[in-house]
Design a protein that fits this description.
Layout lengths: L11 H7 L3 E2 L2 E2 L21 H7 L5 E4 L10 H13 L6 E5 L17 H6 L6 E6 L1 H4 L1 H18 L3 H4 E11 L4 E5 L4 E8 L2 E5 L10 H8 L17 E5 L3 E5 L5 E5 L4 E10 H18 L11 H14 L7 H5 L4 H16 L3
Antiparallel strand pairs: 1-2, 3-11, 4-5, 5-6, 6-13, 7-12, 8-11, 8-13, 9-10, 9-12
Helix pairs in contact: 2-6, 8-9, 9-10
Length: 353
């Protein structure tokens, strides 16, 4: 049987790093400067700059971080946070599923666990996937870490990330031993930090159309969030990352992925962020989906800058201009606009020649 270390069960090597970095009220105040690179005074070691500069928002890559065994992400602290959120009657950020043992299962096929409290407290013995979305909105200490991640990722990548981000979210993921997170895609770019336990994650190239088809992307942006289909035949195209505390991975927008947890409870922190350029691309896919339904054969994004801009601007005029989250973005292809397109097409066909 595996020996499962908890977030408070720190090795001697890490213990020397953990001292001096917390107070009774949580993490101490810090600077976002990367020069000293002291754990918890910064998120990433400065040595990660090359990976971020070359890969952020472009390709998947591994990185090191200093959040392993941070007390705010210890399981008892997360359970307490769950209780505080439930006590406030705000369940919007909490969700739990009974996990299956195949990457081909979709989130929509996983049984929802309505008793989130029971799922949370039984995480080590159960078969659960728990998600706490928007943790930074419930506690300012998590907001501090959320903001620092964006700041430092921007410094490392030499990209004005905070200025370019349209919306972002910190999601805390708890998973039972041995469970699988289904194969799926996300609109947002993602930085995934392993805090406790171990897991394997398989990442695919989002530009590889033998893995992720244009039709799947169009259906995703038309509101079918489970559109991506897992196929064993393309599994060799994936890159496997073995995550342990202190390691993380970046997955760019639309990067297909699935996860298998190790023999112990896993705690991960996911920092998701959207950019204006990603939302413009999403609107092109949305427009293409409905044009295709009308019998046209639109070209995917990237073939014509002018056409992409026209499609995106048309969508922007007819939809919510500033999405604040994924649900708003996926709903920004207004149903009334789809109806107008169909009505215009019908009138065109009925018009006398």
């Amino acid at each position: 049987m595996a020996h499962c270390r908890t977030s408070t069960d720190v090795t001697d090597r890490n213990a020397s790093d953990l001292g001096r970095r917390t107070s009774a009220n949580g993490p101490v105040a810090h600077s976002t400067a990367l020069s000293e690179g002291k754990p918890w005074q910064s998120i990433f070691p400065p040595t990660q700059a090359a990976s971020f500069a070359l890969g952020l928002n472009q390709r998947h890559f591994a990185f090191r971080h200093y959040l392993a065994n941070h007390p705010l992400f210890a399981v008892p602290q997360l359970l307490e946070l769950h209780e505080r959120i439930l006590a406030r009657g705000e369940r919007g950020g909490l969700a739990a599923w009974e996990a299956q043992l195949s990457p081909s299962k979709k989130y929509g096929q996983l049984p929802k666990q309505e008793d989130i409290r029971k799922a949370a407290w039984g995480i080590s013995e159960g078969r659960s996937l728990l998600r706490l979305s928007g943790a930074h909105e419930f506690d300012p200490r998590y907001k501090e870490i959320h903001d620092r991640i964006l700041d430092e990722a921007g410094v490392l990548s030499e990209f004005p990330l905070r200025q370019k981000v349209t919306w972002s979210s910190m999601t805390i993921l708890l998973s039972s031993p041995g469970v699988i997170t289904p194969y799926h895609i996300d609109h947002q770019s993602n930085l995934l930090f392993q805090i406790q336990g171990e897991k394997d994650i398989w990442l695919f190239d989002p530009k590889d159309r033998s893995v992720l088809t244009e039709d799947e992307v169009e259906r995703y942006y038309a509101g079918s969030v489970n559109a991506a289909e897992y196929r064993e035949a393309v599994q060799p195209a994936a890159h496997r990352y073995q995550l342990k505390p202190g390691l993380g991975v970046h997955n760019p927008s639309l990067g297909p992925h699935w996860v298998k947890n190790g023999p112990c409870v896993s705690v991960s922190v996911s920092l998701n962020f959207s950019l204006g350029e990603l939302e413009a691309r999403a609107r092109v896919y949305q427009m293409n989906r409905y044009l295709r339904r009308l019998g046209f054969s639109p070209r995917p994004p990237g073939h014509s800058i002018l056409r992409d801009r026209l499609k995106s601007e048309m969508m922007k005029l007819m939809s919510k201009r500033h999405s604040k989250n994924l649900d708003e973005l996926l709903d920004s292809m207004p149903r009334r606009f789809a109806g107008r397109l169909r009505a215009a097409s019908a009138r065109s066909r009925a018009a006398p020649n």
